[in-house]
Specification:
5-stranded antiparallel beta sheet, Replication Protein E1, Chain: A, 33% helix
Length: 317
Amino acid sequence: MSILAELKEYVNLRSYGQKEARWDYHKAIADEVSRLYSEYADSPKDLKKSARIKDCAGYLNFGWYNNPDTGHNEIHLIELHCCKTRSCVLCQWRRSLLYKARFSMNIIDILDKYPNAKFIFLTLTVKNCDLTEIRSTLSKMSTAFNRMTKADCFRDVLGYIRNMEITRGDDNSVHPHYHVLLMVTETYFKSGHYITKDCWSAYWKNFLKLDYDPVCDVRLVRDKTKRLDIVKELFKYTIKETDIKKDSWYKILMDSLHHIRAISSGGVLKNIIKDIDKIQDEDLLHINEDSKPLVPLNKTIAYEWNRPVKRYRKAKD
């Protein structure tokens, strides 16, 4: 029997495995976001955004490949059209995978130049605020963080990546916080240089000009395995998909975040994820894939989003 004759072409995309099943999950939530922008539209722009998100990734085209290591045939995405709207959770998911992949690829060259460098994972928080106050709160946090990068507490920092995360409180308040990966020299751990969790909290309090002690957390990333876990934490979505409910909270929040940058970086990590504002469909295709050589079988299979059943179903030939 030929290799092509052994291809297993399923009706549902999710039948291939967990990796493919994630498409159903994220696309279904994107549909809910589209509905929110339509139901709570304040302008024609909202309706256009709703339509763009609704049409996002409606058609997925996969190529068939043979994996010489396992002898198995596999499908890999070769065609995708995303709306690239910031509010679209499917696009957020693909960008998150892209950031992780770029970091993992580029960190190797940086570590070759700084083999003795260590990594610290820092979390900086503030008290929950009202949804109407989120934009001004984030502005203050950004200013405070920029001041911090120029202070003594960053003297042993070679580079950093800072990502913003926002979670929803039980009372519909907003909890903004920063996840920061710090690449530090060995000197950081010497007497007179090491910064405890309480000291980080004091620095953050001072630069934010708070009248309370903010909760901060700092962890040493001890090995490569832990670093991969931290990178997953660092590049999480700005807003948890579980916080998107059948009300206007998510839309109001995303409108408030217009032109507010979620990710920033500096030092030797300045360009590690590169051109995050210029992402194209091609960038969102081949991400989080293994680097193993695959043999193309010159055959494709397409899947279309079936909205009533919330599944990607095999497209008709």
